[in-house]
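Input record, target 12 of the design panel.
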């Protein structure tokens, strides 16, 4: 019913930039918030950035000043602009949507993930 599809990942050199996109589709009544999480091998998934439909944002300390999250509410799309990338940013990045699909309570939906590799 609900699909989240990420794009924009790839291989980039340290100091480079990437822009990730995530488009939500399907039967969605309302989007409360969308965000990006990442998971490196052997590590727990962590929140990278989150933005509410009202525009409030929060970031992991490790990416503040380098990453910027934005959204287009009309298209249910969220973006992550990643600048000054470091090798430690290497991970699979997952799009997350907090959405009201039916009923009154929001639920979490996840994309399939896109690989970001920062290496010489």
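The sequence produced for target 12 reads:
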């Amino acid at each position: 019913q609900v699909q989240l599809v990420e794009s924009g990942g790839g291989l980039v050199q340290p100091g480079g930039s990437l822009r990730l996109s995530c488009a939500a589709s399907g039967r969605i009544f309302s989007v409360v918030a969308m965000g990006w999480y990442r998971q490196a091998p052997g590590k727990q998934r962590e929140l990278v950035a989150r933005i509410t439909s009202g525009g409030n944002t929060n970031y992991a300390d490790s990416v503040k000043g380098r990453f910027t999250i934005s959204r287009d509410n009309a298209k249910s799309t969220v973006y992550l602009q990643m600048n000054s990338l470091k090798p430690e940013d290497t991970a699979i990045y997952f799009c997350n949507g907090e959405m009201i699909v039916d009923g009154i309570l929001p639920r979490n939906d996840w994309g399939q993930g896109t690989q970001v590799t920062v290496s010489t």
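The CA atoms of residues 94 and 112 lie 7 Å apart.
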